[in-house]
């Protein structure tokens, strides 16, 4: 879909220059707020598993974005199949009747979320299969607000098209988007491109050459839904960074040189889960 800022075409050269300067000033301020264990986003201590700070940036996702996403906020909400809640913002993978619930808070542009999925994703999948817990996903788009762009929202909308196919397709596509070979640097808005998202989807059997999935991605069928999911994420004021992992509402953390952080290895994750389930 076309995602251009229509207002740029209407401004004079002087107005555009002033707007660009104001926008850059806002981005610079936001970057200073997006901390990773006390460092500006981008200087990630991945080995320590330091989370990308969300901060309470506030505001509406559609403000300052392109006309397409502004229009999406006004669309009729289309909820993907296999979601729950009034606005379809409940995304559950695993047995809904499982006694325990693992909550994963992530942003699709977050590089540390990518590392978490690469390192711990298979362990999470095994635990789900074994019935240890079900997984509830909470997906934000704060990096679009902080870094500029629409990739987090666009990838979230594509995930809506995937969960419409099945929870398993959602899980597999989430893993593919976070794969080392596929995940862009947070400053590169690669996921804003539908073709990039569809190319990665070819790695997921349930989505490969799936005409309905492809149409929903291209048409932005779940754009409004993506904004609702992002708004739900923002309501969790105790979530100050991604990835944040909770088990039955309590954060799973490990000690790092910069304080508490999410478990970033299979061993750390399993130990934290087992300790809480005792």
Highlighted features:
about 280 residues; alpha+beta; disordered N terminus
Strand-residue proportion? 5-15%
**Poorly predicted regions:** 1-17, 27-64
The 3D shape can be described as: globular
Helicity, in percent?
40-55%
Largest sheet: 6 strands, mixed
Rg computed from alpha carbons, rounded to a whole number of angstroms: 18 Å
Q: Look at the structure and give the mean pLDDT.
A: 83
N- to C-terminal separation? 49 Å
Task: Write the element-wise H/E pattern from the N-terminal end onward.
Answer: HEEEHEEEHEHHHHHHEEEEEH
Overall strand count: 12
What's the total helix number? 10
Q: How are the strands of the biggest sheet laid out side by side? A: 4-5-7-6-9-10
Structural classification: alpha+beta
């Amino acid at each position: 879909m076309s995602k251009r800022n229509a207002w740029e075409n209407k401004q004079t050269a002087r107005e555009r220059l002033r707007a660009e300067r104001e926008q850059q000033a806002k981005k610079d301020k936001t970057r200073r707020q997006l901390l990773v264990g006390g460092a500006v986003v981008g200087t990630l201590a991945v080995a320590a598993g330091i989370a990308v700070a969300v901060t309470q940036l506030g505001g509406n996702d559609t403000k300052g974005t392109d006309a397409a996403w502004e229009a999406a906020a006004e669309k009729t909400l289309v909820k993907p199949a296999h979601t729950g809640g009034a606005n379809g913002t409940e995304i559950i993978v695993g047995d809904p009747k499982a006694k325990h619930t693992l909550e994963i808070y992530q942003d699709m542009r977050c590089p540390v979320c990518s590392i978490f999925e690469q390192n711990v994703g298979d362990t999470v999948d095994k635990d789900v299969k074994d019935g240890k817990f079900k997984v509830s996903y909470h997906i934000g788009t704060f990096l679009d607000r902080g870094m500029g762009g629409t990739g987090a929202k666009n990838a979230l909308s594509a995930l809506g098209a995937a969960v419409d196919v099945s929870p398993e397709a959602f899980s597999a596509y989430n893993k593919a988007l976070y794969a080392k070979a596929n995940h862009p640097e947070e400053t590169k808005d690669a996921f804003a491109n539908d073709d990039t998202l569809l190319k990665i989807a070819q790695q997921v059997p349930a989505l490969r050459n799936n005409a309905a999935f492809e149409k929903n991605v291209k048409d932005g069928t779940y754009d409004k839904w993506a904004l609702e999911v992002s708004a739900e994420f923002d309501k969790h004021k105790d979530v100050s960074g991604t990835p944040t992992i909770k088990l039955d509402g309590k954060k799973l953390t490990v000690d790092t040189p910069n304080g508490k952080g999410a478990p970033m290895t299979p061993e750390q994750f399993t130990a934290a889960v087992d300790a809480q389930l005792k």
